[in-house]
Amino acid sequence: MPVSxxxxxxxxxxxxFEAFADPxxxxxxxxxxxxxxxxxxxxxxxxxxxxxMFIVRRGTILISKAVTGKVEQVLVRVEPADFLGxxxxxxxxxxxxxxxAETDVELLVLGRDSLQTMTETAPRAAAxxxxxxxxxxxxxxxxxTQQVAEATRWGLxxxxxxxxxR
Amino acid sequence: MDRPAPAKFELxxxxxxxxxxxxxxxASVIGxxxxxxxxxxxxxxxxxxxxxxxxxxxxxILKNTTTDRFLLLSAQERFLWDQMDGATSLQEIAxxxxxxxxxxxxxxxxxxxxxxxxxxxLTFEPRSRLRQALARNRDRRVVRAIELALTGLERIRIxxxxxxxxxxxxxxxxxxxLFTPAAIVxxxxxxxxxxxxxxxxxxxxxDMLDGFGGRALVGLVTVKLLFFASVALHQLVHGLxxxxxxxxxxxxxxxxxxxxxxxxxxxxxxxxxASRRARVVTAITGALVHLVLxxxxxxxxxxAPMGGFTQAxxxxxxxxxxxxxxxxxYPFCFIEMDGYHxxxxxxxxxxxxxxxxxxxxxxxxxxxxxxxxxxxxxxxxYVVLSTLSVAAFIAFNVWIIVxxxx
Lengths: 166, 406
What we know:
The structure holds 2 protein chains of 2 kinds.
Chain A: H1 5-12, H2 22-31, E1 33-37, E2 42-44, E3 52-58, E4 61-68, E5 71-78, E6 83-84, H3 86-91, E7 98-101, E8 105-111, H4 112-121, H5 123-159
Antiparallel strand pairs in A: 1-8, 2-7, 3-6, 3-8, 4-5, 4-7
Helix pairs in contact in A: 1-2, 4-5
Chain B: E1 8-14, E2 21-27, H1 28-34, E3 36-39, E4 45-50, E5 59-64, E6 69-74, H2 75-83, H3 90-101, H4 108-118, E7 122-125, H5 129-136, H6 141-155, E8 157-160, H7 164-172, H8 181-204, H9 216-244, E9 251-257, E10 261-267, H10 276-303, H11 309-329, H12 338-347, H13 352-365, H14 374-405
Antiparallel strand pairs in B: 1-2, 3-7, 4-5, 5-6, 8-9, 9-10
Helix pairs in contact in B: 2-3, 7-9, 8-10, 9-10, 9-11, 10-11, 10-12, 13-14
């Protein structure tokens, strides 16, 4: 089935595909699957096996991590043109957090096989993809570090603990 | 430099249906207000009054006998120190402070907490004693089930923090009339007529519950449910009183108190910044809802066909409304309801229940002082009256249930 111009235009806005040439982007788009989630539907749970990453085309996905009982901490909202699930795509490890649709969602799914094919058939595009991915990882690492600092600040403010004076 | 906004967590709380959830923003300030600072063991500190011919206000010296660190406390700080028993939250402590001193110093509590922590005189208890006890025994299946049930019920909370404009509108379009002399006259006039109707009714009726026929239990349950709606009205009137005194209504909602008592509530803590008269009026007006509704029910019962379902229903509703009035305004029942707040405000003893229970507990365990001064008489009187009242209340309700079912 031919890839629509709208899909190609959308993929052009996805950061990890920004450096792709048109034919590379078309080839990639051909290998992406579409998937829809209704509001509140769980995409995957923390601990699930997985080998796919998801690009949000429409709607919002909540990423949360279990804290205690039925309480989870919301780590981030994944908005259109952003992606999730990439860690399991690379190392096949269990999902590190739960992903759930906050609204009705449309996704594009990139499987490990497709990534492998892209690496073999379009090495320039694959290199651009990995380079952009490393940059995204660094940004997310910075954000995680910031979240740790915020969690510590929350604890200090909630207990009124005067650490400076100790 | 500007202080950063309080840190916040966004939490996702799952419901029974695994996909359903609720998002909650939890600011650090909520954790702070709900924390329960606790003094270290009484054996580990000493406190004594500092007498001086120069200083006008009394001071106190607090010593950590383990570390030999000393702190100088003002009378206000001593008051706050006495509240830090591990059961009272910072929010409750702040409320007590306002009731005692009639003003609030926003820095005194954080700075005292810092001083006490530095001197290692404080620990923190984050949750209620019941929840702590349950957590300790979580390996037992029954305890785990109770804990789960309480947690589930605690999650049921329907509330809005943006209710002030609603209450202002309600006040502007009619609510203000509740705070006019005409409303007071009408309220007590209706109460008198209602009381007259009740007296006539109980002279004429052989057994009020006969009118329910074979549907006594269903009738009483319906009466209770209808009464529950009047609790919402009670809270609405508290909110209107708050608006009347130009203070802010912070929240209105429904929750399970302590995880198992269903109730409506309104957050009118801003009224503590108003005059004593405003606080007393705000406390009393909510309860007067039950006086008016009870009177109305008795009048309906008096005019309903004798011995019929309507009469029984109206009479039972009248009784339960006036019972609620007594419970709300009667201060001696260990529950800090409207009457209790009025009493402590009038006496100027904001920690009456806390101090009374601690004193009597000390007497019973043989560690308390035996000397009876004014305060001790007040404490013993409060505990004795409350104990007798609770016993009488339970006996009365048992009698009602036995009468209804036999």
